[in-house]
Amino acid sequence: MTKFFCIANQKGGVGKTTTTINLAAALAKLGQRVLLVDLDPQGNATMGSGVDKHSLPSTVYHVLLGLKPIKAAIIQPPEVGYSLLAANRDLAGAEIEMVDLERREYRLKDALKEIQDSYDYILIDCPPSLSMLTLNGLCSAQGVIIPMQCEYFALEGLTDLVNTIRSLHAHLNPELEIISILRVMFDMRITLQQQVAEQLKAHFGDKVFNSVIPRNVRLAEAPSYGLPGVVYDPSSRGAKAYLAFAQELLSRNF
Ligand code: ADP
Ligand code: MG
Question: TM segments (predicted)?
């Protein structure tokens, strides 16, 4: 059975894309067949997988609007080990263009049905908002992975996201659940971060994964080489942490 996971957090710059590309690469290294869906018009996951977002004949935009079959839009970036349904600025228009379409929240889910048997994991990188795009991501998924920085306001933002997911679960996607809260850009030396990390554990228990992703410059510089950190420098602390996260995810067997 294919697992569909959405990497979501309505805040920007919290590590969604870094988590998506590194988890995809780590799962691929562990022998899984992975498709990464870039649902953000910024196309960061596309560029971070080594694909030039400006020169693409078909992207997730064409798939959502029914202009191209999904099979024609999926590409195989050479070095990363996973397949990609890419995105670029075209996608920003999809929001409005989808308004009149049937089953507009389920456009991605319906398209993915055609190819899901070819993959063990489908990972969806969401934009930082609760737009129709994110809704399409969340309506396709069984699980949400929430990357978060352990900062003072993080818990407040998390409550909003949890409520949104509850409401989606009730109205649009009864399968949806939070499967993982992942602490990212973590710095052990900062007491506040340790405190927030502990509060998170107390609140969300098992959903907070044991794996913690440290702040690591190799993860930040890898996208400029068109690679996830896990491929760019597998021996770095960041890469090892994402591999451990992938292993933890596999071992929990969702
Ligand atoms: P989002 O997709 O949520 O907007 P990104 O994954 O693009 O967030 O991350 C925001 C910025 O933080 C990027 O410049 C990224 O390279 C950097 N970053 C993400 N995770 C880490 C990390 N663990 N260590 C260092 N830099 C990181
Ligand atoms: Mg992003």
Answer: none
